[in-house]
Amino acid sequence: MSVRDEIEETLEKSFAPSRLEVVDDSDSHIGHAGHDGKGESHFNVLIRAEAFQGMTRVAQHRAVHKALGDIVPRIHALALDIGA
Fold first, then answer.
1. Could you give the CA distance from residue 14 to residue 31 in angstroms, rounded to a whole number?
2. Are 7 and 26 in contact, with CB atoms under 8 Å apart?
3. Secondary structure letter of residue 18 according to DSSP
4. Roughly what angle, to the nearest 10 degrees, separates helices 3-15 and 57-68?
5. Do 45 and 11 form a contact (C-beta atoms < 8 A)?
6. Which of 29, 1, 40, 55 is nearest to 64 (CA)?
7. N or C end of the chain, less CB within 10 A?
């Protein structure tokens, strides 16, 4: 399973989002730090879920990072666009 698929599956299970987009943006970072030439190093995530209602932005980010668990240390960059 690709890292992108792992991220998507984990976020679906954890937050039952109304909208979820996970984009592997690794190819845009070729030659930059953290890109080892293999890809699957830089991701952009847009997620909307009721679970984030009333949470501060920091709490939302912490919740996503906690849900992703051991996936986060395996990638170089994770851009998050979170909302309820």
1. 34
2. no
3. S
4. 120
5. yes
6. 55
7. N
- Going by the DSSP 8-state scheme, the letter that residue 31 receives in this structure is T
Q: Are 25 and 44 in contact (CB under 8 A)?
A: yes
User: Which of 80, 76, 3, 8 has the alpha carbon at shortest distance from 45?
Assistant: 80
- Distance between terminal CA atoms of the chain? 28
Say whether 16 sits in a helix, a strand or coil: coil
Q: For 73, which DSSP code?
A: G
Predicted TM-score of the model (pTM): 0.84
Beta 42-48 vs 19-24: how paired, if at all? antiparallel
Q: Which of 24, 18, 67 has its CA nearest to residue 45? A: 24
Q: Measured in whole angstroms, how far is the alpha carbon of residue 57 from the centre of its chain? A: 15
The 77-83 sheet, strands edge to edge: 19-24, 42-48, 77-83
